[in-house]
Each structure stands twice: as C-alpha cells, then as structure tokens.
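The records we work with from here on pair a chain with its fold. Each token is a code from a learned vocabulary of local backbone shapes. A record is reproduced here so that you can trace the correspondence yourselves:

_____
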Amino acid sequence: MQDVERLSESEALVLAGLLRQMIRADGRFTTEERQALAHVALEIAVEPASTGAIGEVALYALMDEAAQKFATDDALRAAASTVTRPETRAAIHAMLFEVAASDTITVNEAQVLDWLAETWELEAPRDLEGEKTDVG
C-alpha cells in the first residue's frame, strides 16, 4: 500500500465536506464515484488518532458529520479557507479531481474544482487522457 496522506481532523472534515459537495454537484452518485471514494478512503489517515488509512465506513461517517457541520456552501467555503498547508491543499484537490474524473466531469463538478484551485492558488488539472467533460 502506498503512503497515506495524513490530515488533521479539521482538514479531513473539510475533505469530507468537499467530497460530499462534489458527489452532489451533478445530482448522481455513480458506481464509478463510489469506487473512487473507496480509493480515497485508502489514501488518507486522520491524525493524531489513526495509524493507517481511515477506510470507507469512516469516510462516509465523516461525510455525514461534514454535512451537519457545514450546512451551507458558505460554511464549507469558509472551512476550506482554513486549510493552509500547501501539500494538503494539493492532495485534497487531487482526491476531488479523482472522484470527479471517475466518470464524466460535469460543469458543476468543474466549478467546484476550479473554485478550489483558485482559492487555494493551485494549478487545476485538466481532462485526463481519454476522460470526457460534460459541457452542459
């Protein structure tokens, strides 16, 4: 297994909220997105409690917690602004891109990715080879 990204509890909660927003962006939760989430669950650990990847069950529980804590888009955006470590910003964005690109990236999903890349001053990845973007 590859090294996991170690996130603080607050960073993990922001990731979970953004993942939830990404999945809801197009109104569908596809099989491909479920598989991508399972992969993301193997890529992250939450410090200080965890010594390994959090797993799917914990990720879904974290997404539920994020839904309650960040009840509005503004609340989630404010929370996202508290993530300051550049490597964590890049890792979170990459995981969101992985979920979005698991099927077709929709306009709404691209808007989330673009907003985050701009807010965090990241270079947004573009379409993967062979991947399709739904232009609306």
